[in-house]
UniProtKB/TrEMBL annotation:
<feature type="region of interest" description="Disordered">
    <location>
        <begin position="457"/>
        <end position="482"/>
    </location>
</feature>
<dbReference type="InterPro" id="IPR009051">
    <property type="entry name" value="Helical_ferredxn"/>
</dbReference>
<feature type="domain" description="4Fe-4S ferredoxin-type">
    <location>
        <begin position="315"/>
        <end position="384"/>
    </location>
</feature>
<dbReference type="InterPro" id="IPR017896">
    <property type="entry name" value="4Fe4S_Fe-S-bd"/>
</dbReference>
<keyword id="KW-0411">Iron-sulfur</keyword>
<feature type="domain" description="LUD">
    <location>
        <begin position="71"/>
        <end position="298"/>
    </location>
</feature>
<feature type="domain" description="Lactate utilization protein B C-terminal">
    <location>
        <begin position="397"/>
        <end position="476"/>
    </location>
</feature>
<dbReference type="Pfam" id="PF11870">
    <property type="entry name" value="LutB_C"/>
</dbReference>
<dbReference type="Pfam" id="PF02589">
    <property type="entry name" value="LUD_dom"/>
</dbReference>
<keyword id="KW-0677">Repeat</keyword>
<dbReference type="InterPro" id="IPR003741">
    <property type="entry name" value="LUD_dom"/>
</dbReference>
<keyword id="KW-0408">Iron</keyword>
<feature type="compositionally biased region" description="Basic and acidic residues">
    <location>
        <begin position="473"/>
        <end position="482"/>
    </location>
</feature>
<dbReference type="InterPro" id="IPR024569">
    <property type="entry name" value="LutB_C"/>
</dbReference>
<dbReference type="GO" id="GO:0006089">
    <property type="term" value="P:lactate metabolic process"/>
</dbReference>
<keyword id="KW-0479">Metal-binding</keyword>
<keyword id="KW-0813">Transport</keyword>
Amino acid sequence: MSATHLGMPSFPHAAKRELANAQLRHNLANATTTIRHKRAEVVDELDDWPQLRESGAAIKAHALSHLDTYLEQFETAVTNAGGTVHWARDADEANRIVTELVRETGEREVVKVKSMATQEIDLNGALEDAGIDAWETDLAELIVQLGDDTPSHILVPAIHRNRAEIREIFRDEMGKVGTPAPEDLTDDPAQLADAARQHLREKFLRAKVAVSGANFAVADSGTLVVVESEGNGRMCLTLPETLISVVGIEKIVPTWQDLEVFLQLLPRSSTGERMNPYTSTWTGVAAGDGPQNFHVVLLDNGRTNALADEVGRQALRCIRCSACLNVCPVYERTGGHAYGSVYPGPIGAVLTPQLRGTESEVDKSLPFASSLCGACYDVCPVAIDIPDLLVHLRTRVVEEHSSARDKPLDALMGVASWVLGDAKRLAWAQKAASLSRKVIGRKGKIGRLPAPLSRWTDARDAPAPAQESFRSWWERTRGGKE
């Protein structure tokens, strides 16, 4: 994963910091509300949406169950079409492959299509270390790059910025790396887009090498697919002489016909559109048309570890639509930076710990970055049961990181299990709790209890025990009769 996220605090600490940013919360609320409403409108137009969703989930599940077969089929198809396939076990290997491919061309710069896989491996940093400039061409990614920032959303990486902030970034930074923004630039969206267009145009016309990701990789034809809204991606995919695509191995779909399902699910779930303005597909190379040197880097980087988990593997079905982020009450209040990963929000909370492991504080905190409200599952176009995955990963974190510090709490949970397992013991505990009301209750709430119970009471306001339990009331008023 990107080095920009290493050493970040765990989610609770990062979220607390972000919650204090009123402008961030305002920007997020406006953006996510707008996208949610657009998505709901276009999804409601389709009577067969549940069937499409079921089909998308089934296709991805099948592809993951036979991933080795489809990856080899994809490699054969790409090779037969004039491309070259490279296999990368981790970020270091992928970065080395891409860097060497760029060096072989003799070029010192590349233009890039928006790609989460290259963010995941911090390809830009690796290219910079090798003396190669990498220029982001997606508008939101350009904003993030010029602002020396990190993405905070899957679909809209600069969602945490408002128009006034973008204007200042363009005015201050564009001239340092290319065509400057106009002196009279305002925060009008059309003017901002035009400034970006003029800034990028010289890079498109000059660059000989491009780097892309892919939304889908079709096994039977060796085709890669990129969907976008601006057209900058198509410029990258068609103008340069060399194209290098870094693609996660989970992006495989078996057949061209499968795209019929996903090209309906993805745009509606992501941008709230019936179809993407630009859908680019390419298969190998063609004489006199587009890049004449084509390379695919198939990236593992923890994906086979996730695939080995029978419960966790469903996270690999993700098509990066960001619908779960836009409905998540936690994401809407904290933003993406609090997650410490290029994959924020609910899907990041279940995908990142599987790709990176749960050794760091930030990674083992991510499965707990949710209220388990279930909204993410309701909108997921490939029916990933994110709440179930979160609970599954919470169990894994506890099992992997249990320590002596947890022993008192574990013993307490054992006692609670023993009490709750017998009706008579529970009745005794309820009476004891009612008698202790005056001792542990403060203004109707349980006050701070001694350790280790303080870890529980410090994190929540729990009501004090009732003066009389329901069991006691029933016995007193009904004599224990039904």
